[in-house]
Design goal:
Elements: H1 2-6, E1 9-12, E2 16-22, E3 27-34, E4 40-46, H2 48-55, E5 57-61, H3 62-69, H4 73-85, E6 89-91, H5 102-111, H6 117-125, E7 128-132, H7 136-148, E8 152-156, H8 181-192, E9 197-201, E10 221-224, H9 231-245, E11 248-251, E12 264-266, H10 274-284, E13 293-297, E14 305-309, H11 317-335, E15 344-349, E16 354-359
Parallel strand pairs: 7-8, 7-10, 8-9, 10-11
Antiparallel strand pairs: 1-5, 1-6, 2-3, 3-4, 11-12, 13-14, 15-16
Length: about 375
């Protein structure tokens, strides 16, 4: 073990800062500071440790540093074990050469105490994601996951791009007007990373759809934003199928005034099933009635006429991006097996500046009993 360590190459993690205070007696106080979690650890050690830490540059082996600084081998080995046990350094072989994910890996280093950043990143590389509905929310989730490192997608959407799609769909340009949304998003994703595999399916999810044709066997999670005929109906169809397949589903997005929803994740045998969720929503929203926007239209010189905007006022690109960003974090946490917020759905009430939450109960219905 000592030979293996001394011939290895190490460097300080990018997510760790080091601060030192030199004392008069040849010793220093060294503080290790985890940038992401704000955790600190202090030790008192000989000043030569500062030189050793500065020499861990990812280029020289430990034995080369020992010889260069004329250090005691046994002392260095003990110090190395301390640094490794506390996750302050990383071995050269575990450094991803692609600079694209450097900052993200540094974040992952401190996100899970049981997994290092590169191992965590490689989980995303191997993930397969299916998205039903690539409108303003679904497409943004796809883009964010692609930038995070997910390498395989399936997009299902029967709609084509219109001029008014430009308002909330961030992947749309003049040249792809009238293209199928799934095809246009595929082209955009390939610009982010040409190695990403994307299968685009230009079909509508209907009651008699064969889901085996849409969902590959290696799927890790399905994201549903398909709101036609209604997202509750499409979620029921998908949720029951995926529960039997032991595949997780995230129900994302919202509509009009509800477009800043956080969505809910359904994990077979861990969370409530889709039927339990639906029952919860029915009870929670039984007294809810839609509110329609009104405006005054001066159609004559004699009177004002109040017109009702059916379906509400719509929403902004930022609202969709909020919903997609929250969903992406939840999805990444699930893929990485990190504890996250489950069994409740939230909505940011933009007119009140606060969150509203619904706790989702598990009733042990005919699906999940």
């Amino acid at each position: 073990y000592s030979i293996l360590i001394l011939n290895n190459i190490y460097k300080l993690k990018d997510s760790v800062d080091i601060y030192t205070i030199n004392e008069d007696n040849g010793y220093s106080i060294i503080e290790f500071y985890r940038i992401n979690t704000r955790e600190k650890k202090r030790i008192r050690i000989h000043n030569v440790a500062n030189q050793f830490l500065a020499s861990l540059d990812g280029i020289k082996t430990v034995i080369e540093i020992i010889n260069e600084l004329n250090l005691d081998t046994d002392t260095v080995k003990k110090f190395l074990v301390f640094l490794l046990d506390n996750g302050f350094i990383i071995e050269k072989k575990d450094i991803l050469e692609d600079e694209r994910y450097k900052r993200q890996i540094a974040f992952f280093d401190d996100l899970s105490p049981t997994k290092d950043g590169l191992f965590t990143q490689e989980i995303l590389f191997k993930s397969s994601v299916v998205i039903f509905g690539v409108g303003s929310v679904g497409s943004n989730i796809a883009i964010l996951l692609a930038r995070a490192g997910v390498k395989k997608f399936t997009f299902i959407d029967f709609k084509k791009i219109k001029q008014n799609s430009k308002v909330r769909h961030l992947y749309i340009y003049d040249y792809n007007i009238n293209m199928y949304k799934s095809d246009a998003l595929k082209d955009y994703i390939k610009l982010i990373d040409k190695s990403i595999i994307v299968n685009s399916i230009n079909k509508k999810l209907v009651p008699n759809s064969n889901l085996d044709e849409f969902i590959p066997n290696d799927t890790n999670i399905v994201i549903n934003t398909a709101d036609e005929p209604y997202i509750g109906h499409t979620s029921i169809k998908l949720g029951r199928y995926l529960w039997k397949k032991n595949i997780a589903m995230y129900v994302a997005g919202g509509f009009n005034a509800h477009s800043m929803s956080t969505g809910e994740i359904i994990i077979p045998n861990i969370t409530s099933c889709i039927d339990c969720y639906s029952n919860t929503f029915q009870n929670a929203l039984k007294d809810w009635k839609p509110k329609y926007s009104k405006y005054k239209n001066n159609k004559s010189l004699n009177q004002d006429i109040e017109d009702i905007i059916i379906g509400g006022a719509g929403s902004l690109a930022g609202c969709s991006l909020f919903s997609a960003s929250y969903a992406t974090i939840s999805i990444i946490y699930y893929l990485l097996d990190i504890q996250h917020n489950i069994n409740r759905r939230g909505e940011y009430l933009i007119n009140q500046g606060k969150f509203s939450w619904i706790n989702l109960t598990q009733d042990r219905c005919h699906v999940c009993k």
